[in-house]
Each structure stands twice: as structure tokens, then as C-alpha cells.
Amino acid sequence: MDPRKKEERISELSRIERHVTQENGTEMPHTHPYNNEWRKGIYVDIVSGEPLFASSEKFDAGCGWPSFSKPITPLEERDDHSLFRVRTEVRSKEGDSHLGHVFPDGPAECGGLRYCINGAALRFIPMEDMEKEGYGEYIDQIEE
After folding, report:
1. Which of 26, 28, 53, 76 is the most exposed place for a label (fewest CB within 10 A)?
2. Whole-prediction pTM
3. 88-141 pLDDT, tens per residue?
4. Which of 92, 3, 111 has the alpha carbon at shortest distance from 51?
5. Residues 8-26: pLDDT tens digits?
6. Rounded to the nearest 10 degrees, what angle do helices 15-23 and 3-11 cross at?
């Protein structure tokens, strides 16, 4: 991602979006509307626009944050020692945005992973808008 475009985009973020994506923050659980978003579509990085998750991989983990069983493409993973235990942080590749963490307690039938993601790091694009917003190639990943 072009550094100037990234800086411009970051300057347009809300305080919580900037805190989450740029300062490795976390939004309060059960506060973001995407936790209860169940329409078909795609979730992209709010900074870079890179595709992250398909709605078909979203599930209700009851944790208070949007949860997915797998990303569209691999994410950056880093060890996170910030809470007196080791967790695996996930970040977007192009935008280097902090997204959340991945845990091994997801649905076994979907691979066993739970990507616990801050809604503030995401932008949801409904299926009917994917083509016009340049994400048409990912429509096949959305279950009919």
C-alpha cells in the first residue's frame, strides 16, 4: 500500500478505528454493529481495503467480537505477550492493521480456529455491492 495513501486513510479513521488498527487496541465487547451483522458479503481492512473474511465463515462465538473460522487469504501472525500469556495476534498484510487474535477454540467442523476480530478494523461490503466496489472475484466465496 502506498505510504501516502495509507497515511491519508489513517487520518480519516475514527478515534476507536485508529486505536484498534494503529495502536493494537481492542474495542469493548458487544459494542460494534458487525458483531450482529449477518448479511452476505465480505469484510475488508478498513485501512487498506484488502479482503479479509467472507460472511460465509462468520459464526457467533458469544465472545462479543465478530468471529470467523478462516480468512480469505493468510494473515500476518505475531506472538502477543501483552496479557501475561501468549496469544497469536493477526494483522492485515497490506495495511499492517491490528485486527485481533486467533484462538484454537473455533468450530471443529470448520478447522477449529476462531479469528476474534475487532469490528473497528473492518469495513463490511454487502454482496450486492461487491462487484461495483471491485470485489467481484470474491463473490464465489459467499454461500448462496
Report:
1. 28
2. 0.94
3. 999 999 999 999 999 999 999 999 999 999 999 999 999 999 999 999 999 999
4. 92
5. 999 999 999 999 999 999 9
6. 140
Exactly one of 13, 44, 116, 142 is catalytic; name it: 116
| Helix, strand or coil, per DSSP, at residue 116 | strand
Determine the pLDDT at residue 84.
Answer: 76
Q: Are 142 and 56 in contact (CB under 8 A)?
A: yes
Q: CA of 21: how far to CAs of 76, 99, 122, 134, in Å?
A: 13, 6, 9, 23
Eight-class DSSP state of 70: -
Backbone angles phi, psi at 77, to 5 degrees: -120, 140
How far is residue 5 from each of residues 112, 130, 134, measured CA to CA in Å? 36, 22, 18
110 is catalytic: no
